[in-house]
Amino acid sequence: MTETMQAPRGAGAKKRLFVQSWGCQMNVYDSHRMADVLAPLGYAPVSSPEGADMVILNTCHIREKATEKLFSELGRLRALKEARRAEGGRMILAVAGCVAQAEGAEITARAPYVDLVLGPQSYHRLPELLARVSRAAGAVIETEFPPEDKFDHLPEASAPQGVTAFLTIQEGCDKFCAFCVVPYTRGAEYSRPAAAVLAEARRLVAGGAREVTLLGQNVNAWHGEGPEGRAWNLARLLAALAEIPGLARLRYTTSHPRDMDAALIAAHRDIPAVMPFLHLPVQSGSDRVLAAMNRGHKAEDYLRLVDALRQARPDIALSTDIIAGHPGETEADHQATLRLIERVGFAQAFSFKYSARPGTPAAAAPGQVEEAVKDRRLAEIQALLRAQQAAFNASKAGQEVEVLFTGPGRHPGQLAGRSPWLQPVHATGPTGLIGAVRRVRITAAHPNSLAGELIHPPDQEKHAA
Ligand code: SAH
Ligand code: SF4
Ligand code: F3S
Q1: CA of 58 to the centre of ligand 3 (A)
Q2: Who contacts 295 (Cβ-Cβ below 8 Å, separation ≥6)?
Q3: Is the CB of 288 under 6 A from ligand 2?
Q4: Sign of the alpha-carbon dihedral angle for 359, 362, 366, 367
Q5: Among residues 142, 162, 196, which one ends one of the domains?
Q6: What span, in angstroms and rounded, lies between the C-alpha atoms of 147 and 188?
Q7: Mean pLDDT confidence for 227-248
Q8: From the CB of residue 302, how many other CB atoms can be counted at a distance below 10 Å?
Q9: How far is Cα 302 from Cα 13, in angstroms, rounded to an integer?
Q10: DSSP state, 208?
């Protein structure tokens, strides 16, 4: 996933900032926060790196391919940086995110024209690091886990994110799945206090957000002290967020099956703003592989959770992550994964070929699976998941669904929005409906999106509003 920040209105900035995010949604959120930190220094986001005064690449280390993207992009930026210098300007080139945390000085060894390498825990220190860059002869590398809380030192999120917004409430991971780099790049699990989350959510809504997605590498492990001094879990936090006037929809991602407690399942039944969609990575359907992965749950535990969720909220749609060819995975294990997928019926899913990450236990484990076998298993998994997604989308055809309109569609007169199940929906309608939730009759289902028409045609909107 690649995302660049949109330039706000009036970006005739003194200094031009280009931020590119790869990886998870937490990186997208962090990119916004880095822009917030740099705004008082006169930097405003632009939508391309040409002529920028500062370029930040916010990187992902999760799979080898994700990491390689960084070095191919750096090669391209080097030419732009040199062109800038030839004009008498300077482009500061910074590498942030999980590759920065994992590789540190390795990055500048391979790309000496990089000025700054900074890990995810140091974003609040960007102004100070930039001052060091302008004084330093060589590159500045900052990958410590500082003792202070970066969230306490970040300015209040300022730039509005739009109709749908992200809000990081939890960071880091203590689970140490055998294949995963996140515990090393993002550090130990940490939850932000409820009061800070509620205040940021209110600001997002004041800035136009109608849907807020709470983020965390283990978001459902969130726990904190409520404003009244009592211990809160995620279910309690969702209930408090749902009280914010104007906040129509709540989502949270990514959840771990082990932290999916009864209160959170009940929240899907009891809180209308909590959307009937859950991303719940299972990784494998084989107990042997799940044990090798150190996931701490069995296939049966996952299926029981799915049953409980469907009992609480019959229309809930599930999404997941699957890894094909984890070390030690046999053909029988792979078949068990296909069976689990068949039993659940996912509305959407992400599936990946196992990628050995240096320093993780699985990278050194015996039984590494051959590339060709991984390819074939992944193809089988993806064919099944694709068919399930198409069937799920098709099941909405002819139905009336509530759509949150998020922006203009691709064609003139068209609006783009989202169903409660996170499906993109297109319908003809006036731009005044952006930010509103309206009932839409689904007229066509495509593999990745839906098309529909407003139940109340636009000329009746003023009565329906
Ligand atoms: N915190 C989330 C996942 C974060 S990473 C969770 O616990 O599920 C997102 C997904 O990338 C993971 O769910 C996993 O499916 C995949 N992934 C992580 N490490 C991987 C690796 N080494 N090779 C292939 N896929 C990997
Ligand atoms: Fe990685 Fe596992 Fe932590 Fe998810 S729970 S971030 S997969 S170690
Ligand atoms: Fe990638 Fe780091 Fe997110 S490794 S998936 S950017 S936590």
Answers
A1: 10
A2: 177, 257, 258, 283, 284
A3: no
A4: negative
A5: 142
A6: 12
A7: 96
A8: 24
A9: 51
A10: T
Ligand 2: does its nearest atom lie under 6 Å from the Cβ of 256? yes
Q: Higher-confidence residue: 235 or 461? A: 235
Q: What is the pLDDT of residues 358-396, one digit of tens each?
A: 999 999 999 999 999 999 999 999 999 999 999 999 999
Q: Are residues 298 and 390 in the same domain?
A: yes
Domain that residue 28 falls in: 2-142
Do residues 38 and 75 both lie within one domain? yes
For the chain, what is the domain count? 3
The helix/strand/coil state of 464 is helix
Distance 256 CA to ligand 2 centre (A): 8
Asked whether 60 and 97 are in contact (CB, 8 A), the reply is yes
**pLDDT value at residue 148:** 66
Distance (Å, rounded) from C-alpha 278 to C-alpha 105? 38
- Ligand 1 pocket test, candidate residues 321, 322, 337, most atoms within 8 A of CB: 321
Site to substitute for ligand 1 among 175, 180, 319, most atoms within 8 A of C-beta = 180
CB 282 within 8 A of CB 321: yes
Please state, in angstroms and rounded to a whole number, the distance separating the CA atoms of residues 395 and 124.
46
Per-residue pLDDT, averaged over 200-210, amounts to 95
Q: For position 32, what pLDDT does the model report?
A: 93
CA of 230 to the centre of ligand 1 (A): 33
Full-model pTM: 0.93
Closest Cα partner for 234 from 266, 279, 206, 204? 266
**What number of other Cβ atoms are within 10 A of residue 76's Cβ?**
10
Dist CA 160 CA 8 (whole Å): 9
The answer to whether the CB of 67 is under 6 A from ligand 1 is: no
- 3-state class (DSSP) for residue 285: coil
Cα distance between residue 465 and residue 445, in whole Å: 27
| Ligand with minimal distance to 362 CA | 1
Distance in Å, CA 261 to ligand 2 centroid: 18
What is the Cα–Cα distance from 102 to 114, expressed in whole angstroms?
16
457 has pLDDT over 80: no
Nearest to 313 by CA among 360, 365, 255, 271: 271
Query: For ligand 1, what atom is nearest to the CA of residue 357?
Result: 22
pLDDT digits (tens, 9 = 90+) for 5-14: 655 544 444 8
Please tell me whether residues 246 and 196 are part of one structural domain: yes
Both 70 and 173 in one domain: the answer is no
Interval between CA 65 and ligand 1 midpoint (Å): 13
Q: What are the pLDDT digits (tens) for 89-100?
A: 999 999 999 999
